[in-house]
Recover the amino acids of this structure.
């Protein structure tokens, strides 16, 4: 019964995907859509296979930026959440700041940063990814550290446990699922941020800039081939975050 | 040694507790409570909800400080008794750590005492035996039924062999059958370990079946109205539930509670009239 469900959950989306691509191909052929309007999947695949090395290079650049930002943002976010959970008054100062920073379209910052660094620098993009990841991780982990069961805290106090012992044995274990929830959101977001940051100038070596330049040159199918690369990269990041989560979950519920 | 045996397990003297004193949301939770509990005694606190049972238990546990009065546990201040882990505690929710196995949950208070691994493992095995969960040490709490989880919570509370056990409606969330089974188990465990128990409950039969004395409390501000001794002997069994003495004690607790209820209704009626 379980395996049947599992097969269903794999087969159903696969069938859907195949049917969707077939319809797409059929629509392009049937309505004789111009390639600059919508490229056929077969053409996109052709371009993808023809440009594999270049797509791979661009993927490595964008993916590298996303990864660097993801790692640094996670480390900073976790560190800050510890500080905030320790000093409640700080959290009252920082939370409104975090919210207002999230409210402004922060991609504008890339343009500013591009002006501050040399045109060949990857730093502005990595900084952007770091910032986006930082807030996602900070908000979630801080929640995990503070929203602990009051009974568990009372129990710890009844064992005469120090604040540090409560942190180590209750707050941190409680926050770990929150960290992985954050990573599941932050991993795809880091990829998206890395792409979009490329639209604001700077080096033209990543997936995002390749997509724009191909569109600008009316090479629609090639642009879609790079989009395909982008999808695969996002998927890879997401998959890794899920695998990491299941490795750390051990025998737990949910 | 004889000195220690003569020390009262719990001594509550002239204790009052006011929450949010002087503010608009002030609550007079307890008023001039006096209670002395001898070692090995099983004492239940019963009363309408909101009458301060949990508050009294938390005061004894030094999780709260009294506004007035003094509390001693084992002849020490409540604060010192907490630092020495002189009591164990269990609540209505088992409050188990779901990232720890059953065994690791029981081990937690021992870790905090700084015991070494070997000593801890031996004690965990002993406690699993005591609550009849020998084969469940490696399981996770969510793999256990509610009654089993509560047994783990009791094992954890008793792991450090504290002389005093504080329980706040520990069986409140269990079904009737499991509840009666757990009551029997608790009596057996306390007899085997000669632990003193302060037990908060809503259930009159539960209080009577378990206790040497039942403390009946009045609604806010919480006061001790009456302390009823239950003379059912020290060996209790399922037969006890059918004994005449059992019903007689139930009736006296019920009457004492009814008195508080009538008082409660009268006082709210008066307050209502004043409001108008
Ligand atoms: N931390 C607290 N702050 C303010 N009021 C409280 C607090 N804890 C309990 N109270 C109040 O004290 C009264 C007694 O509560 P409690 O001891 O939990 O009652 P019981 O356990 O008998 O139902 C209630 O009116 C409750 O609202
Ligand atoms: Mg209560």
């Amino acid at each position: 019964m379980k395996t049947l469900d599992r097969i269903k959950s794999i087969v159903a989306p696969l069938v859907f995907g195949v049917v969707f691509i077939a319809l797409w191909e059929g629509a392009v052929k049937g309505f004789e859509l111009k390639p600059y309007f919508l490229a056929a999947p077969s053409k996109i695949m052709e371009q993808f296979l023809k440009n594999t090395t270049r797509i791979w290079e661009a993927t490595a650049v964008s993916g590298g930026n996303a990864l660097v930002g993801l790692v640094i943002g996670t480390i900073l976010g976790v560190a800050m959440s510890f500080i905030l959970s320790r000093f409640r008054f700080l959290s009252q100062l920082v939370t409104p700041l975090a919210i207002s920073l999230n409210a402004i379209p922060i991609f504008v910052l890339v343009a500013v940063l591009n002006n501050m660094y040399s045109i060949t620098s990857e730093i502005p993009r990595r900084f952007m990814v770091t910032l986006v990841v930082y807030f996602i991780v900070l908000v979630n982990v801080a929640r995990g550290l503070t929203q602990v069961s009051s009974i568990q805290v009372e129990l710890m106090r009844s064992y005469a446990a120090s604040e540090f012992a409560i942190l180590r044995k209750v707050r941190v274990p409680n926050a770990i699922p929150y960290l992985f929830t954050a990573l599941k959101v932050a991993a795809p977001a880091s990829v998206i941020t890395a792409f979009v940051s490329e639209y604001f100038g700077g080096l033209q070596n990543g997936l995002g800039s390749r997509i724009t330049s191909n569109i600008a040159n009316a090479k629609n199918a090639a642009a879609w081939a790079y989009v395909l690369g982008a999808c695969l990269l996002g998927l890879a990041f997401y998959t890794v975050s899920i695998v990491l989560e299941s490795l750390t979950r051990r025998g737990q519920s949910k | 040694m004889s000195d220690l045996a003569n020390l009262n397990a719990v001594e509550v003297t002239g204790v009052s507790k006011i929450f949010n004193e002087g503010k608009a949301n002030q609550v007079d939770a307890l008023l001039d409570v006096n209670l002395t509990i001898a070692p090995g005694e099983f004492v239940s606190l019963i009363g309408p909800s909101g009458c301060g049972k949990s508050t009294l238990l938390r005061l004894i546990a030094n999780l709260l400080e009294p506004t007035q009065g003094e509390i001693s546990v084992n002849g020490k201040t409540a604060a010192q008794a907490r630092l020495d882990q002189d009591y164990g505690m269990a609540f209505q929710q088992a409050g188990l750590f779901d990232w720890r196995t059953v065994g690791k949950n029981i081990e937690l208070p021992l870790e905090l005492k700084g015991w070494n691994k070997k000593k801890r493992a031996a004690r965990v095995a002993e406690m699993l035996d005591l609550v009849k969960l020998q084969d469940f040490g490696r399981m996770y709490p969510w793999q256990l039924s509610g009654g089993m989880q509560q047994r783990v919570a009791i094992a954890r509370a008793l792991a450090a062999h504290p002389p005093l056990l504080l329980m706040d409606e520990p069986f409140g969330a269990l079904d009737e059958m499991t509840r009666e089974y757990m009551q029997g188990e608790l009596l057996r465990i306390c007899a085997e370990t000669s632990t003193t128990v302060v037990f908060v409950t809503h259930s009159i039969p539960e209080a009577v079946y378990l206790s040497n004395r039942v403390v009946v409390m009045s609604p806010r501000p919480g006061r001790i109205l009456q302390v009823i001794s239950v003379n059912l002997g020290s060996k209790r069994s399922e037969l006890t539930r059918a004994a005449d003495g059992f019903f007689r004690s139930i009736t006296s607790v019920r009457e004492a509670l009814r008195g508080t209820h009538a008082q409660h209704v009268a006082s709210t009626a008066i307050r209502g009239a004043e409001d108008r």
